[in-house]
Amino acid sequence: MAESEFRHDCAFCRIAQGQQEAEIVHQDDRVTAFRDIAPQAPTHIVVIPNRHIPSLEAANEEDVALLGAMFLVAQQVARDEDLDRDGYRLVCNTGPDAGQSVLHLHLHILGGRRLGWPPG
User: Which residues of the chain fall below pLDDT 70?
Assistant: First the structure.
């Protein structure tokens, strides 16, 4: 990851770089997935791009392949966690009113129990 793509003040950048502890369940050159430290479901995994992108609003055309990779990793991680049988939810909070608490684009994989609707 180029220095301009890494922020020392970003916990998720530090996790992707191995500078902050996390229970990583998947990592490749573009995407990292790890267990959430404050799970909201029996299975709660966060999927991030290794490159710093503050939110979905900051993504652009150059990020299309990366965004697709995030979803495919989420699918594979959900299968690895046996969530594909009964279902799972992917959540991407964007901005403070949506509950985005870490300013680094991420998907939440939630499963392991019946999830209510509407979610908010």
Answer: 1-4, 120
Q: How many domains does the chain have?
A: 1
| 56 part of a folded domain | yes
106 is catalytic: yes
Structural domain includes residue 84: yes
Instruction: For residue 88, give its domain range.
Output: 3-104
99 assigned to some structural domain: yes
Q: pTM for the whole thing?
A: 0.93
What is the 3-state secondary structure of the chain?
CCHHHCCCCCHHHHHHCCCCCCCEEEECCCEEEEECCCCCCCEEEEEEECCCCCCHHHCCHHHHHHHHHHHHHHHHHHHHCCCCCCCEEEECCCCHHHCCCCCCCCEEEEECCCCCCCCC
Q: Per the residue annotation, which of 52, 104, 106, 108 is the catalytic one?
A: 106
